[in-house]
Amino acid sequence: MPSSAVLRRALLALAVVALALWTALTTQPRLGLDLRGGTRIVLETQDTPALRADAAATDRALEVLRKRVDGLGVAEPSLARSGENRIVVELPGLRDPREAAEVIGRTAQLTVHAVTGTATAAMPEGRPAADGTRVLPDPDGGGLLALAAPALTGDGVKSADAVLDTAGGRGWTVDLAFRDGAAADWARLTGEAACAPAGDPARRVAIVLDDRIVSAPAVQTGVTCGAGIAGGSTQITGGFSAEEARDLAALVEGGALPLPVTTVEQSTVGPTLGAEAIRASALAAVIGLACTGVFVIAVYRLLGVLATLALLLYGLLSYAAVVALGATLTLPGLAGFVLAVGIAVDANVLVFERAREEYAALGRTTAVRDPRRPLATAFAKAWSAVADSNITTLLAAGLLFAFATGPVKGFGVTLALGVLASMVTAMVITRLLADAVLALPAVRRRPALTGMAGLGRLRTRLARRAPRLMVHRRRWFTVSTVLLLVALAGIGVRGVQWGVEFTGGRDVQYAATRPVDADAARAAVAAAGFPDAVVQATGDGGRDVTVRVGETDDSAQRRITEALTRTAGPVTVERDDLVGPSLGGELRTHALLALGLAVAAQLAYLSVRFRWTYAAAAVAAMAQDVLLVVGLFAWLGKPVDSVFLAALLTVVGYSVNDSVVVLDRLRELRRTGTRLPLADLADRAVAQTLPRTVNTGMGALFVLAALAVLGGDTLTDFSVALLAGVVLGMASTIFTALPLTVTLESRAPQPPVRQANPRTADPTGAVV
């Protein structure tokens, strides 16, 4: 009979899987612009007496719009300046595009005024007078309110959040928090209003958004005259619905547009990727995952079957979490998701390799009597490595979500969901399945079937001839230095080829005389020498095609026009604009800030969990991997775009994860109280974890190889970056992180470790 704890875990796992299955079957995913297309809105900035609508002012308006769109919950949008004073906004899968155009196009100038009294109908209503005073309709009645010049503007707002006020019965409200200086102005404004008698209009404070009073609350009688409301916060009420409150919060927090904008065009756009490319990528994913499953089963037999089943459940849990949160799925995101399934095998491999060690330590007779015993010990001992590697990844994901914007923010969400789902499936579901299967008499009679009875070929060979890698530390440092110099030479000599998302380029809209097949147009443009061009069908009739390329001259543009003419018949140029980057400078700044904070957080966490020497070595190996991948792309002349950015972030997580596992084993070996030199312990740590490193790497490489060969041009660069990252990550752990740890420890030795339950070592070098 299973224990009550096991039964509770089984019921919890069953409930989680059932909920995930229900969510996956009943919730439609939000697909990105590349998979489904969406809405294209072209906004035009207008001159004001104080500011001309030039490129610089339009760029500032674009950044405000980007924050506003993010606040509206539209994930993975595309925003770029077109020409001097136009902004092209592409939004995936909106239910009401017209309402979205109206919301994002509002100026959203927030001001806070003291109410000086009521006004007569004869007084001019609307825009401010020369002294800043104005008259606007009272939202709580049919009259007019006279307002003083603004005491606060939206620049003083620190944050704005839509909140359901259940205690006060006000329904949906918007809570505002002011910055330090604005908080003092708010206290002064409310302190002056508190001096007016109750019922006097002068006791009210008006919150105005774009020439309309959205709320004009009276200062409560408990507020002291002259002191005002301290704390630097207030609440906007107005009988809002949930959607209205969220829209208002997004507008206020995003800030006011520096220039007014008008909508000059609104249309639907098709996906940036063709149907054939999507089908090829899906086929590659299926083949890659199937190969990973076959490999795991071949190596770990029955436990491999259970791990493959757990990986399928991992995919279900991750997908359900993504669609439940309303995150937008793009092709790079899906490719990263598929890769995460391949890498998620790591926790299972870590446990299974440890189970083989424990099986050999117990002896065949004892282990056969109850094969669950070595597996339970393996789960307990593998927990620290699994927890440390996943916590470092979660730290990075959380900081990417908190500080980055655009696709980097979305990557943080997907990464965090994948990590949590991986821990649930590996440490809970796999264990439940294994406990149930290993208890069967038929399995106990066939110990070889479990996959734990043998140490494996690689571990057996390592036991016969243990590697002596740390003796040659200087050699590995020299090789790493040479590779880094080659990478830096590529970056310095050839330079990084930024994609059109970072540099901007040319956006041309063509009109054809008959409906155009987007896949055929895309193939024609690629054949003309522009394989990285973004080709979309626009409009409802399917007769318009938009082509976005990097900076090109007129002769290149003529080649594209001729290629489209041969494919779709005569075409005419409807619009030819220079466009700015869709991933602008602010997004890059935020992404670099988030990445820097993530690395610092990982360094701090690993310093606490291990030592600063271990942490510095792991982070140095990760930095080396990143530079080598960037240098490789520089030498190959491949573009650095949002797809490459997602791949690079994945490399960061994979590299640190791999280093943590090996360093965790080194730490464990030191805690046995052995007198062996640290270099010998490091060699032993490599020997004991190398099977896990190879098997996990193979699981990821199967998926990546399939994506690279069958995924088409769209995913080739993504796969190349990750193939390089996975291989370099495995190598840097052994040849950079561990040698650097040994070197740093020799210069700053750890205090003597108190021996705790020392044990002997078996012939394989495993701690038993």
Element layout with pairings:
Layout: H1 4-26, E1 30-31, E2 38-45, H2 55-71, E3 78-82, E4 86-92, H3 97-104, E5 110-119, E6 134-137, E7 144-147, E8 152-153, E9 157-165, E10 171-178, H4 180-193, E11 205-209, E12 213-215, E13 233-240, H5 242-254, E14 261-269, H6 275-325, E15 328-329, H7 331-343, H8 345-362, H9 364-369, H10 372-403, H11 406-438, H12 441-444, H13 447-450, H14 457-464, H15 473-494, E16 497-498, H16 500-503, E17 505-512, H17 518-527, E18 534-538, E19 544-549, H18 554-568, E20 571-579, H19 585-609, H20 612-636, E21 639-640, H21 642-670, H22 678-710, H23 713-747
Parallel strand pairs: 1-15, 16-21
Antiparallel strand pairs: 2-4, 2-14, 3-4, 5-7, 5-8, 5-11, 6-7, 9-10, 10-13, 11-12, 17-19, 17-20, 18-19
Shape, per Cα inertia axes = globular
Number of strands: 21
Let me know the average pLDDT: 80
Biggest sheet details = 6 strands, antiparallel
Overall helicity:
55-70%
Assembly classification: single chain
Structural description of this entry:
The longest helix has 51 residues, at 275-325. Strands 5, 6, 7, 8, 11 and 12 form a 6-stranded antiparallel sheet that branches. Mean pLDDT is 80; it is low at 755-768. The protein is an alpha+beta fold and 768 residues long. The chain is globular, with a radius of gyration of 31 Å. Helix 7 (331-343) packs parallel to helix 21 (642-670). It has 23 helices and 21 strands.
